[in-house]
Every structure is written in structure tokens, then in C-alpha cells.
């Protein structure tokens, strides 16, 4: 019987407006700006050594869930976030 991988622990640094997770020693991030009740996702970064594992997806989903919880709208300014919303249409009501 194989063990399930440990879920990633994404932290939300509200002061620096970033979601962070460390994966195998690589710092992955999603940066945003908050203007009133609009979260603008400005950057997702996943270093090459851990790329292709769905980490950017998890970071974006966490950011969108936080936005929804806080009653914020989302403006996907980075290309990854734009594609994420195209694939996850159930969140289109959060778009600005």
C-alpha cells in the first residue's frame, strides 16, 4: 500500500501580499496586489527543479479561495492566472 504524498502547506503572507510554499528546497510563490476589494494576481513563480508538479495550480487555487472567502474580485494579470481561469470556469464569477 503506497502512502499518499503529504499535502503542500501554502502560507499566505498578507503583509507582503504573497502565497508561498517550499517544495524540495525550492521557494514557489504567487504575488498579488490588493486594491480595495480587488486582488490582482501579478506573478506565479515555480523554479525549474520542481516545475510540472501542479504547484502553480495549487497556489492559484489557494489565492482564489482566499479572495472568495474575503468577498474580493480577482484580476488575473499574469499569463498563468489568465490560463488558470480559462480552465477553472467555476470561478469566473470572481473575475473583475
Give a brief outline of the structure.
The protein is an alpha+beta fold and 96 residues long. It contains two helices and five strands; from the N terminus they run ββββαβα. Strands 1-2-3-4-5 form a five-stranded mixed β-sheet.
- Share of residues in helices: 25-40%
Order of helices and strands: EEEEHEH
* Overall body shape: globular
* Mean pLDDT score: 94
Q: Strands of the biggest beta sheet: in what spatial order?
A: 1-2-3-4-5
* Unreliable segments of 5+ consecutive residues: none
End-to-end distance, in Å? 46 Å
Strand content: 25-35%
| Radius of gyration (Å) | 14 Å
- Counting DSSP H or I runs of 4 or more residues, the number of helices is 2
Fold and architecture overview:
It contains 2 helices and 5 strands; from the N terminus they run ββββαβα. With 96 residues, the protein is an alpha+beta fold. A 5-stranded mixed beta sheet has the order 1-2-3-4-5. Strand 2 (18-23) and strand 3 form a beta hairpin. The N and C termini lie far apart (46 Å).
Amino acid at each position: 500500500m503506497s502512502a499518499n504524498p503529504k499535502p503542500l502547506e501554502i502560507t499566505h503572507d498578507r503583509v507582503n501580499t504573497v502565497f508561498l510554499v517550499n517544495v524540495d528546497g525550492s521557494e514557489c510563490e504567487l504575488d498579488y496586489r490588493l486594491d480595495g476589494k480587488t486582488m490582482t494576481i501579478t506573478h506565479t513563480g515555480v523554479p525549474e527543479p520542481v516545475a510540472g508538479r501542479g504547484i502553480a495550480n495549487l497556489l492559484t487555487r489557494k489565492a482564489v479561495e482566499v479572495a472568495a472567502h474575503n468577498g474580493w474580485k480577482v484580476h488575473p494579470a499574469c499569463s498563468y492566472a489568465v490560463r488558470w481561469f480559462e480552465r477553472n470556469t467555476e470561478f469566473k464569477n470572481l473575475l473583475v
